[in-house]
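thread: overnight batch results

M.L. [08:02]
morning all. the overnight job finished for the chain we discussed friday. pasting input first so we're all looking at the same thing
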Amino acid sequence: MSLSLDSGANDADELVRALRFASTAAKQLPAAKALDVVGAAPFGTQAQKLKKAVGQIFYGLAFGAAFVASMAGIYYGNQVYGPEMYGQNGMAPAAEAHAANKNYAVFDLNLNVRALREEQLKRMTKTPELIILGASQWQEGHKELLKGMDVYNAHIHRDYWEDPLGMVELLVRYNKLPKKLIIAIRDKQFTPVDARKDWLWEPGIPAYRAMTQRLGIETESYWKTAPYHRLQALISLPMLFENFTRWYNAAEHPGPTTATQLENMDLIMPDGSIEWSKFKRNNVFTPQRTANEVDALVKANLSSPLLIDPQGVAAYEALFTFLKKQGVQVYLTNPPYNPAFYDRIVGTSYAEGVGRVEALTQKFSTEYGFPIFGNFNPHKVGCTSDMYIDAEHSSPQCLQKVFDQFLALDGVRKSS
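M.L. [08:03]
and the structure it wrote out:
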């Protein structure tokens, strides 16, 4: 009888060992054997322990299932109420409107602009003569500033060195590689991934990876560039609350429009540029706000020196070689700062970093024969502080001066 009881006790203890912490199970096993030897351990006690363990398992599974379901609900909710940033095909309606030569109204410009560019390129029926690749410094670069040239402003918010590779991949993929391509190089263009403080670049990584394979160059590791922060935002309850309340309280919702400016909503234009709402133009972008933004960026950048990722530089060299072989005429540029910002960083380590980026741009120009226009120094371009909404983003008045330099260069090339 003792053999039979000992066998049952061992089976129960083995299951408990698999379900509980090892240290607890290790203490129970010798105790059970000792009680069995003197015949004092009733089988019911072991059955009760097993029942308790099984109950804990089911409780844990139920809790886990509820947690996963709640995360899935938050994920889905953010996609529904924040479609322009998080929707699976959230920018497709905007691209459809643009294909019909309509503008598209949005709450603000916090959107997945990289997805928008791909959706737009899918629907383009012809290749523009000129395409602009750069960051949001170029967002108000309307086609009218290029004096009748067929232009697509493919600017991307907070672009890094992977973004031009990804954009060129999309241009090739959809057969929209133009005759002329402006590639803007901003101050933080070559910042390494681990030194970045924003994450809008994450959705552009798949296209970047495809281009590195096309070029046959080294690709950054998946674990280094995985969209961790985008996933974090998608399962964020505060983000869902913000998206839901904005959607619920809005008098107007995103959609196509023939209006050229709206009272409270920003516009994305068919040429890729943007138009601010009347409210922001008249009430938000004040001189005081601009001064505050300049102060904040000066303080932030003086303690954060510019870094240049050698892998990014090598990737640009491979990209430029590819574009040259494809017969694309590339123009390089550096976007001008607000003079109020530029003058305050002169002589600092940050200004030295800006100088290194400018020198690198000059090096690319010399090695590949790409003309340069514009300058980080706004005084060389003719832009004044009243032409900016912050330290970096200029108005069409400043951009006109920059594009006039491009048009002069392009005119010289045409005549030669």
